[in-house]
Write a structure and sequence with these properties.
About 45% of the residues lie in helices and about 25% in strands. The chain is built from 12 helices and 20 strands.
Length: about 500
């Protein structure tokens, strides 16, 4: 509709932009890379028209044809297995039919304007932001959600924008006939260390205005006459726009947040309150443990307006109020998603999904074919058991992980915490590897707890003399209790998490 309306008049300007990929690094004053943002394209797909429908080629064959096409080959032959004419886009082996190549660039932008119409179409295929800090708590900050295998054919760009604008010069008014913004599901993972590191880069860009200058500016405004103020307001008359149809898509995001992470800053100083050892102790143990969020799902409803006249400020304030109210309404999701509580919201969601499959799968099987009822019933039972066992194991894993995190902070040993964090980031491929890694983690806690009784005083004496020696004695004795206990909690956490991932992998494979 928008495309046809934009072509009713002769275009005075048409602009088409397509980029295969864009990357940008964020570097602080110490020349440390903090973040890397990338816009990337989708893998090119090849289809062949067989028996009246398009059939996607296998990944290996599609990649081979793409390599030939990019190197300018007009003919693609491989022994007696593959024969394809890339000039006329025809294939004879292993299938006979017309070929189709589909390429989805990272950014696709079209702009067309005429005397009274303007049309804009923009697509962003994939946006990803990586945490590049050497001790990143969450390696990936922002990335689109993974698409299930059974939905791969329906892959869509992460962001799609369509706008059709008409302007009547005689009345000097803008009319947005159609504006639609679609955003696909995404994941966002933030930790305090990354936030402070990014803030430290941009805080210097804002110029500080002296207080005396601010007072003088306020006095100048007070001294203005009423006529002068009316003239200023008339000059700043609000430009209103008529929106016939405006739609901002619903947002579905998976949020993770942690107060952990080290800030890499050049001049930013922490708040003086946090410099207190006692306050820092309770901040690390209580704060980090109680505010850890992992994969909490938030759903925000769409924002839509029809036949309204608004200024841009009014539109932004109403959209902001809408999404703010949506977040407040889902506050219970954030509370029930805390790791220290075992994320009961996720557990209920998993159980509901399994229970739904138990009733849904047999009904679908009976509709498709009478003989598939029993098979689909087994699928539903397996889904219920998998989601129940996996959800329960995941919930218990989060609770034990929170206890292990609190015990690790009580050791006051930065080296131990770094080794523990590095080991917890490992993702074994199967359950036996998860159990082996859990056993190694427990052994590490026992060994470091016993060896710390000797190593901590020696390290403290070499760094700070007698004072460091007695501090090391305290750390060693405290670690003798806390490190083995943290190892036990981590062992249970990693074992239960392995069970959860096995259940998820089994269910995904069945689907």
């Amino acid at each position: 509709m928008a495309g046809k309306a934009g072509q009713t008049e002769h275009a005075t300007l048409a602009l088409f932009v397509s980029l295969d990929g864009v990357g940008m690094s964020l570097i602080n004053g110490q020349y440390t890379e903090v973040a890397f943002a990338s816009l990337s394209s989708a893998p090119t797909t090849w289809d062949v028209f067989v028996k009246g429908k398009w059939k996607p080629l296998k990944m290996e064959l599609a990649a081979w044809l793409e390599d030939k096409w990019r190197n300018g080959k007009m003919q693609a032959d491989f022994k007696d297995y593959v024969e394809a004419d890339l000039k006329d886009m025809q294939m004879t082996k292993p299938y006979r039919g017309e070929l189709r190549r589909t390429h989805r660039p990272a950014i696709s932008f079209q702009y067309r304007t005429s005397e009274s119409h303007t049309a804009v179409f923009a697509n962003v295929h994939r946006l990803q932001i990586d945490n590049q800090l050497p001790d990143a708590y969450f390696p990936c900050v922002w990335y689109p959600a993974l698409v299930p295998k059974h939905k791969k054919a329906q892959v869509k760009p992460f962001l799609m924008l369509t706008m059709l604008r008409t302007q009547v010069p005689e009345s000097n008014t803008d009319n947005i006939k159609y504006l639609k913004l679609l955003v696909q599901e995404f994941n966002i993972s933030l930790d305090v260390g990354f936030i402070l590191s990014v803030y430290n880069i941009f805080v210097h860009l804002q110029k500080e205005v002296k207080e005396s200058i601010q007072i003088q500016n306020d006095l100048d405004i007070v001294k203005q006459s009423l006529k002068e103020m009316l003239k200023v307001q008339a000059a700043k008359s609000v430009h209103r726009t008529v929106f016939e149809y405006l739609h901002l898509s619903p947002l579905k995001m998976c949020v993770s947040f942690s107060l952990s992470g080290n800030a890499h800053t050049s001049s930013l100083q922490e708040h003086s309150l946090l410099n207190s050892d006692i306050v820092r102790f309770f901040y690390d143990i209580v704060g980090v443990t109680l505010t850890e969020l992992r994969e909490v799902e938030l759903r925000l409803a769409f924002f839509e307006r029809k036949n309204v006249t608004l200024s841009m400020d009014q539109l932004m304030s109403r959209a902001q109020a809408h999404y703010t109210s949506q977040i407040i309404q889902q506050g219970y999701v954030l509370i029930l998603g805390l790791d220290v509580l075992g994320n009961p919201y996720g557990l209920i969601k998993d159980f509901s999904k399994g229970l739904g499959d138990l009733f849904y799968e047999p009904v679908v099987g009976s509709i498709e074919a009478p003989g598939e009822f029993t098979e689909r019933l087994f699928v539903g039972v397996e889904s219920l058991l998998g989601h129940t066992v996996g959800g329960t194991a995941g919930s218990l894993s989060r609770i034990t992980a929170s206890l292990g995190r609190a015990l690790a902070f009580m050791t006051f040993d930065d080296d131990y915490k770094a080794k523990r964090r590095q080991r917890l980031r490992q993702r074994p491929k199967n359950l036996p590897q998860s159990l082996v890694l859990a056993g190694k983690t427990f052994a590490m806690g026992m060994v470091l707890g016993v060896s710390g009784v000797v190593a901590s005083p020696a390290r403290g004496a070499s760094e700070s003399g007698a004072e460091g020696f007695f501090k090391g004695v305290g750390k060693g004795l405290l670690g003798l209790v806390t490190k083995p206990m943290a190892g036990v909690m981590d062992m249970f956490s990693m074992s239960l998490d392995g069970i959860r991932r096995v259940c998820i992998h089994t269910l995904c494979t069945k689907q």
